[in-house]
Amino acid sequence: MSDQLKVSAKFSVPAKEIYAAWLSSKQHTEMTNIKAHVSSEEGGKFKAGGGYMTGKNLGLVKNKRIVQTWRSSEFAKSDLDSLLVVNFEDISSGCKVTIEHSQIPKGQGAAYKQGWIDYYLLPMKAYFKK
Length: 130
Description:
The chain is an alpha+beta fold. The chain is built from three helices and six strands. Strands 1-6-5-4-3-2 form a six-stranded antiparallel beta sheet. The longest helix is centred in the last third of the chain and has 19 residues, at 109-127.
């Protein structure tokens, strides 16, 4: 069995702003404070967290959902890629972002859950307050 996790946060900007930032190398780097090279194309590859995370875009639904393969430098060579789904939902006060991460090597899920909070959701809260 593999691990899976789900985390979410609300932001005071529309979904389209966060979706666009996630798929822009410049803005992704700015919102996480860590170097990222990302693609806004289906099939495009990404490298984020200063090279800690790599993968590719499997499916993009504009302003709604990003589906990616994902692996970290902590995965063993024999580990399959995990699956990352980021959902963007417009709500009355702005947007809710939900990160669903599955097929994580057993025993690593809790650390990644905290990582999504510490390295994505909290810095994004600060970035989108500007």
